[in-house]
Amino acid sequence: MSKSCPKCGKEVPDDAKFCMDCGYSFQKAGANSEVNSIFSNGKIFLVIIAIVVIVGLAVIAMTGNNPTPNNPVDDAEHVDLTITGVGGWDSDDDKMSYTLYTEAIFNKVPDKLDGYNIKTTYYDSKDAKIGHETETLDNVYYDSYYPLSFGYYTTYKLPDPDHVTVEIMKDGKVIDTYTEKIDTNKIDYLN
To answer: Where does the sequence pass through the membrane (predicted)?
Structure first.
């Protein structure tokens, strides 16, 4: 059995898929039209690009909140403060003592204060350490529009402070450091 090509009229076998003379396809147009429409005119590239964009956005959304996952210190919320001054006084007891303290405005603190400490260190003009005080942040901080006092350090030797360094620590690691020159006019026993 044979059939004739509708385009050129040539006789071809019944099971032929296309005409050997003119290349006419005997397959039904509906069977491949859906596949051809996706691959024609570069539509496949648009489909691939759309899939890549969706996958890329999903990856960014999952990892975008943690830019450095291997560094746990960067995951901690930072404390932002402004040192407003250092004050001090002396005592009139039998043995003379001198106390220094730092005042600061806390601009930003984490929601959970657990694990945060404040280390306040006082130095003289030769950068020699006078002394330091370490406190928990939740013991120092409360919501206030005014400077908060912390870092109370008492000594029996007359100190001559030059600058103070405040270190914010999270689980024993320093995450923020602030240094401020001390105005000695604000310290009672030096005037």
So the answer is: 44-64
Q: 81: which residues sit within 8 A by CB, 6+ positions away?
A: 104, 105, 106, 107, 166, 168, 178
Q: What is the pLDDT of residues 129-157, one digit of tens each?
A: 999 999 999 999 988 888 999 999 999 99
The fold for domain 74-190 equals: Immunoglobulin-like (2.60.40)
pLDDT of residue 189: 77
Contact 81, 104 (CB under 8 A): yes
Main-chain phi, psi angles of 75, to 5 degrees: -70, -25
Query: In angstroms, rounded to a whole number, what is the distance separating the alpha carbons of residues 149 and 94?
Result: 26
Is 58 exposed, middle or buried, given 0-12, 13-18 or 19+ CB atoms closer than 10 A? exposed
Which tens digit of pLDDT belongs to each residue from 38-53? 556 677 878 888 899 9
Which 8-state DSSP code applies to residue 18? B
CB 153 within 8 A of CB 130: yes
Residue ranges covered by each domain of the chain:
2-63, 74-190
For residue 140, the model assigns a pLDDT of 92
